[in-house]
Amino acid sequence: MPSRMTVNDRAKREEPQKAPERFPQMTCSEATSRQQRWRTARLGLAALCTIQLMACDRFPQDPENTVDRIREQRIIRVGVEQPIPREARRLLAEIERATGAKAVISRNGVEPLLTKLGAGEIDLVIAPFGKETPWAAEAALSPPVRIDGNGKGATEWRAAMRTGENRWIMLVETSARRASSAPSAS
Question: What is the value of pTM for the model shown?
Answer without folding.
Answer: 0.66
